[in-house]
Amino acid sequence: MPKFIKGFKLDDEKIQNYLPRQPFDTRPDWAIDCYEFIIDRIPRDAYIGIGVGFEANGDVICVIMLEKGDDKEKLEEEPVHTDDEMLAQIAKDVLTPGVWLSL
User: Fold this and answer.
1) pLDDT tens, 24-76?
2) Strand 95-102 relative to strand 60-69, pairing
3) Of 48, 58, 56, nearest in space to 8 by CA
4) What is the rounded CA–CA span in Å between residue 9 and residue 100?
5) Distance of alpha carbon 16 from alpha carbon 34, whole angstroms
6) Domain that holds residue 15
């Protein structure tokens, strides 16, 4: 049975808009550095873990997990929410809430 994860995906488009890549920055690991920079600023007790999920088109994504389970519809009943102020602020800028199929 598939597992699902609920939380915030690190949204590459939002990250690019928020932390624009400089013309001289052509490193292939630029996105990984940005992910680490973002995750390091979120208090560890604000989420249950970092997971790998899949978009509907099959793209692999990194998700800051708040919940996980077998029932996608049940996870989708309530909107993604956090009481952690730092995570909530970061979510406004570079994250997208949702539920995804987990690796």
Assistant:
1) 566 667 777 889 989 999 999 999 999 999 999 999 999 999 999 999 999 99
2) unpaired
3) 48
4) 9
5) 9
6) 4-102
